[in-house]
Amino acid sequence: MHCGQFLVRTRWVALPPESSAGQSSPPPRRSRYTGPPRYLAPPRWGFPALPWQREQPEEVPHSASAAAAHAGLLIPLLRGVALLAGVAGAAEIWRYVLLLRSRSQALGAREVAASDALVEAASWMCTVMAVAVGVYLLVWVLRVIDAAAERSGVRPPRSRRTVLLGWLVPGPNLSVPGSVLAEVEHAALGRPAGERPSPSRLLRLWWALWAANVVLSVLTALWSLRTGVQARANGVELHALVDLLAAATALVTARVVAWLTALVGPPRAIPLPRVVSVREPARTDTAPASTVLPR
Fold first, then answer.
1. SS (HEC) of the chain
2. pLDDT for the residue 67
3. In the prediction, which pLDDT does 289 show?
4. Residue 223, pLDDT above cutoff 60
5. 271: Cβ–Cβ under 8 A, 6 or more apart, which residues?
6. Are 180 and 166 in contact (CB under 8 A)?
7. Nearest Cα to 258, choosing from 193, 202, 212?
8. Which residue has the higher pLDDT, 179 or 152?
9. How many CB atoms lie under 10 A from the CB of residue 112?
């Protein structure tokens, strides 16, 4: 029972209350602008340097798919090299500890033999695997150069022969590898072709580690030609430092491979919420309960 009246769909509209004088209250005054927000510490957040990603995935180029396929195997291999280099560095540190102990006490034959065996096995395994993974890294570099050039619509700035010679010849291999990867990152990010490449922090870190590893390896090889007890002891220190630096370089190289492969790869599909249809609420047969509004 509703007083014999028909139920009619009603639209309620909320209005601001009028003042006692019959005029609406003035809008609140805006506070004075005090400048941009201030932080107690430098903010650590930000948007990553990524190219524009479309909603629908585009056709995957052959060079990009080849680079991604090589990176899928190269990254775990680089981590394996880092693990072997870390074991070799630990073996060299153990040998150095034995050298320090030998100055004041006699060492057991088994302990010395175990240390020598570990150093020889770890160093040879790490060297062989590093050479094999280095060759495979060059294959990935050539693929990612083609993928970046195809993505940006320009020709690669260096020929394959120039890249290989710059990567392998002592002297140029201090600067050419970093320049090549910086050019790949520059092209993959869609930056202007005439602009000078500005490598990211990750790439600068890798470049510094790579150059330090090359210089220290050459210095260690030359130091090994010296004779004498003190020269050999210093050689153990240099070998340990080279191994630990090689482990860090391999780990950062894996990060760089993953980063550049993601840049030259196809854009990911971004799922977006969509409104399919808008419908009016279904009318019910039962009447809603009446509500008493306060006056």
1. CCCCCCCCCCCCCCCCCECCCCCECCCCCCCCCCCCCCCCCCCCCCCCCCCCCCCCCCCCCHHHHHHHHHHHHHHHHHHHHHHHHHHHHHHHHHHHHHHHHCCCCCCCHHHHHHHHHHHHHHHHHHHHHHHHHHHHHHHHHHHHHHHHHHHHCCCCCCCHHHHHHHHHCCCHHHCHHHHHHHHHHHHHCCCCCCCCCCCCHHHHHHHHHHHHHHHHHHHHHHHCCCCCHHHHHHHHHHHHHHHHHHHHHHHHHHHHHHHHHHHHCCCCCCCCCCCCCCCCCCCCCCCCCCCCCCC
2. 84
3. 46
4. yes
5. none
6. yes
7. 202
8. 179
9. 13
Burial environment of residue 188 by CB neighbours within 10 A (0 to 12, 13 to 18, 19 or more): buried
Retrieve residue 245's tokens.
């630096």
Pick from 163, 126, 150: nearest CA to 249: 126
Give per-residue pLDDT as tens, 72-110. Answer: 899 999 999 999 999 999 999 988 888 888 878 887 888
Of 223, 252, 248, the closest CA to residue 236 belongs to: 223
Decide if pLDDT at 294 tops 50: no
Instruction: Select from 17, 31, 137, 32 the least CA-distant residue to 77.
Output: 137
Q: What is the CA radius of gyration of the chain?
A: 34
- For 224, other C-beta atoms within 10 Å of its C-beta total 13
Distance CA 177, CA 167 (A): 6
| Whether 95 contacts 236, CB under 8 Å | yes
**Helix axis angle, 229-264 to 201-223, nearest 10°:** 150
Q: What is the pLDDT of residue 156?
A: 83
Torsion (CA) 122, 128, 168, 193 in degrees, nearest 10: -90
